[in-house]
Design a protein that fits this description.
It is a single chain. This protein has about 260 residues and is mainly β. The strands form three sheets. Strands 10, 12, 13, 15, 16, 17 and 18 form a seven-stranded antiparallel beta sheet that branches. The termini are far apart. The chain has helices at about 40-45, 90-100, 160-165, 230-235, and strands at about 15-20, 20-25, 50-55, 65, 70-75, 80, 110, 115-120, 125-130, 135-140, 145-150, 150-155, 170-175, 180-185, 195-205, 210-215, 220-225, 240-250.
């Protein structure tokens, strides 16, 4: 049995979102500042640049909670951490996945009945139900923060390697499959993210603006026109193309 005071009941802390085992708290004021930092803190607050944290009720997570390495700040109660490694083959697979996606190779898994609190961040926190993406979502590099441990992580390769290299894009992305909740760190708030739903159609994006897309979509990097002359005339060159049926989550600026 444990009791935590001056956290959820603190008038400086507000729960701004919740889903499954996860709650997102936001500090309404940054009080832990020195006189030299006060002016910066004042204008950060005015521009909604605020400190946020994810709090996990581990008992409600499907299979426990998987974290990005180094994301845990503190736990209380019966919470046990493991490496999540299920053998040599699993270790090699995770090491390969981490080396090409920019994610940590080993993501610790937490199980039990207590509370898990993540490190504070000034980025925006997105809670996503993977079932809403037909059980498969692909992420841009560096967004993963946490997820239900029942979700499967895998490498997703581009359809055409040569154009990915020409477009200065990576060859692989992190794919998440299954039924559970996913937690992402984003530079842009959810209020500014545009969700495009395709039904056997095509989305072309000039720039690295998509932060996530359905695993059912075919993602390539192509010329904006049918020919080199057409691409030069449009002034766009190479564009990211998402083709098929599914959803794409777009930020208003390049990431």
């Amino acid at each position: 049995m444990f009791e935590v005071k001056n956290f959820f009941d603190n008038d400086d802390i507000k729960i701004v979102d919740s889903m499954g085992a996860y709650s997102v708290i936001e500090y309404q004021r940054d009080l832990s500042v020195s006189p030299l930092e006060a002016q910066t803190a004042y204008y950060c607050n005015a521009m909604n640049v605020r400190k946020r944290q994810v709090v996990c009720d581990v008992s409600k997570a499907n299979g426990g909670v998987t974290l990005q390495s180094g994301a845990m700040q503190w736990t209380v109660g019966d919470v046990n951490a493991t490496t999540g490694i299920k053998g040599v083959g699993d270790l090699l697979g995770k090491a390969l996945r981490g080396s090409v996606t920019g994610e940590s190779a080993i993501k610790p898994e937490y199980q039990g009945t207590g509370m898990l609190v993540l490190e504070p961040t000034y980025k925006h926190i997105l809670l996503i139900n993977v079932a809403d993406w037909n059980g498969s979502i692909v992420l841009d590099d560096g967004l993963f923060l946490a997820s239900d441990s029942s979700l499967k992580h895998k490498l997703v390769a581009r359809s055409n390697f040569s154009s990915a290299v020409a477009g200065n894009e990576g060859l692989f992305n992190l794919g998440i499959e299954g039924n559970g909740v996913l937690v992402l760190e984003s530079r842009c708030p959810r209020e500014e993210l545009v969700e495009v739903t395709l039904q056997n159609d095509v989305l072309k994006v000039d720039g690295n603006m998509a932060i996530a897309w359905s695993g059912s979509l075919n993602f390539t990097v192509e010329r904006s026109g049918k020919s080199l002359i057409g691409s030069a005339a449009s002034g766009e060159g190479l564009v990211n193309v998402y083709r098929g049926t599914g959803k794409v989550l777009l930020a208003p600026v390049n990431k």
